[in-house]
Amino acid sequence: MSKQVAKVSAMGALLVMALTLFGCATSADEILVEDQKAYNEALKNIKPGDTIKLADGVWRDFEIIFTGNGSAEKPITLTAQTKGRVILSGQSNLRLAGEYLVVSGLVFKNGFTPTSEVVSFRRSKDDLANNSRVTEIVIDNYNQPERYEVDFWVMMYGKNNRFDHNHLVGKRNKGVTMAVRLNTTDSQENHHRIDHNYFGPRPILGSNGGETLRIGTSHYSRTNSFTIVENNYFDRCDGELEIISNKSGKNIFRSNTFYQSRGTLTMRHGNNNLVEGNIFFGNGADHTGGIRVINGGQTIRNNYMEGLKGTRFGGAFVVMNGVPNSPINRYDQVKDADIFGNTIVDSDNIQLAAGSDAERSAAPVDSRFANNLIYNEDGRDTFTIYDDVSGIDFTDNVIGRAPPQSLASGFQMMDIKMTRAENGLLYADGDGLENIGVAKDLQPTSKDMTGVSWFLKAEPLIAFASGKTIEVKPEDNALFNAVNAAEAGDVLLLLPGSYVVGKFLKLDKPLTFKGEGDVNLTFERSALFEILDGGSLQLINLNISGADAPDNAGNSVIRTSPYAMLQNYRLEIIEMNFIDLDVNHSFNVVTAAKGTFADHILIQNSTFKDVTGAVFKLDKESDDFGIYNAEYLTIENSNFDNVQGALVDFYRGGTDESTFGPHFSLQNSTLSHVGSGKRNKSKSSLQLHGVQVTDMSGNTFKNSQPFLINHTVGEPKTRIIKNKFIATPAPLVSELNSGLEPTAILQDNEGIDP
Ligand code: CA
């Protein structure tokens, strides 16, 4: 074969090296291009077997259109001069259209697509790619600047395409990371293959639209896709409650690993799918789930689930009830489900006929649940049965310790011993257990089998106090200068004394401020700390007074950037004292802006005294789009005294059920004279709207306004237990979602009627 390598630039320089190899008459060109014009020239003359190589370096604002018609033997290739050294940045993207195209080796970072897709297997609605492959590309934090502006990183159209060995990490704005579309007949029954990809950490979005992979849409969900999803690694894909949303028929999900990912592989729509050999490791993390079964003809076999803490629809294993004659966008009844040989170990919830209600009244039928192994070290009964499950034939299942109380037969209760095998999975020892649970030869897909070798699978967060310690003296500007000089993870150790801070302390990295001894801070701007994109704040052992703040309404000690933030932040307040936040009205401790999201806000062993606003103002997402400001607000062992606003105004509007949060926890704390300010419109000491999980116990509430708790969507869990109410009315809980009976649990509280 005679092979030519040509180097082309827009200047017209042309270097041709002819490499003559023996025995073959056809010629294939390898063309190295150094700018966009040269690329376009090269593409014009492309022929089957040719390769275009992009020169190493940064290509800004390059909207690549890669078209051509190769053949199975002679595909047309677009690749990097050196894999990993070609960076598409700015407003770049990639569209493929034609036949037998291969793209590899490119990295998308430091920018975002000007269209709605970064990598698209089509050029336009009618010009699709078929028999094509995208392999070894990286998309790294290539996000729209606006958190809730929707885009998609990879969209597969056409037929017989493959997406493999790619690395996708850090999708932070709204929109599924990757999807297969079936929107025209040319994209249906597509036989795509999605394999050996590394789906790296995707943080909590705080709204619907944070799925990692979707196959189909509800509109085409009764159409077959024949897509194979195998040997992929889903690493902490936490975006929302569906990790994978399957919405079409005849797909195969095989041998994927789900590592500590919140949510489930959801068989949301579409029939006759096969789910086998997948591994779910929850590691005991909140909301880690397994498989949710809906629709007809689903086979779920040889899957392994361990340490999954998910509840309700997000449980380790969930079989839903359907809607009789369901509209295409609701829930088709489960029929002919074959659930066989799965292992579910140390996981919290197995739910059958889940979602049973007046609408979802069709219980599963003609189904089998056999040879499954269910084991929990603590002997807990993990089954919840919501409706008639006589349509499921239970046979030869083995359960460790606790029997499922509502299921009379089909389970053998055995005191088994679990041993971890060389493949990393737990198996039951004992005679007759060979065919129970997953097969011995199941091979988990490990992280290093996926993605590319030349791009690091980095940890997503820099922990507080993981860097160096910098001492700061109480001198003019010293704190401001120290913040600017510090690096992510550093600790600023404030030596004893008084600090008057004359400038905003703006944080675009995680920093800890720790007082040594008696450290007093005041500030002269409308906020002391402003958390910017990339910033996180940990405060330890400081006294902060608002006495020097401007005599204007609306100051805050801590606020988030007024601009939308892509990166979730963390805020921790430990052993802190806040006083004199009362120079004017509406002085808050923490104010979150619209478009910002906290992974967690944690308060421990702190006191707050004389505050004219709210302590936590987390209510700026007022559009009722299902968006909110913080996933977890956790308060422990703290005191709040004379707060005119509420302890927290927390708002999650909307009626979709796509988020696990918000969560609110208040433990062993005291509220005294909270919520009575005349500007506090809600006239409450605590306002929780649409919060999904609320836990309050061991607290004392004195001379305070009542709580207002609005249950708006899903099955919110509110537990108010063992608190003391002194001259404080009972909590007001409203069921705004369904007109259901009140679901809040109020127990063993003193000072209010039970
Ligand atoms: Ca969703």
Describe the structure.
The protein has 754 residues and is mainly beta. The chain is 2% helix and 43% strand. The protein has two helices and 75 strands. It has a 16-stranded mixed sheet, with helices on one face. A 14-stranded parallel sheet has the order 5-8-11-16-19-22-25-28-31-34-37-40-43-44, with no helix packed on it. Strand 45 and strand 46 (426-429) form a beta hairpin. The longest helix has 9 residues, at 36-44. The radius of gyration is 29 Å and the shape is globular. Mean pLDDT is 94; it is low at 10-25. Bound molecules: calcium ion. Calcium ion is lined by residues 208, 211, 240, 242, 658.
Give the distinct bound molecules.
calcium ion
Query: Which residue ranges are poorly predicted, with pLDDT under 50 across at least 5 consecutive positions?
Result: 10-25
Largest beta-sheet characterization? 16 strands, mixed
SS strand fraction: 35-45%
Arithmetic mean of pLDDT: 94
N-end to C-end Cα span: 87 Å
**Numbering strands along the chain, what is their spatial order in the largest sheet?**
2-1-3-4-7-10-15-18-21-24-27-30-33-36-39-42
Shape: globular
Please give the number of β-strands.
75
Subunit organisation of the chains: single chain
Helix fraction, binned, reads under 10%
Number of helices: 2
Q: What radius of gyration results from the CA coordinates? A: 29 Å
Helix/strand class: mainly beta
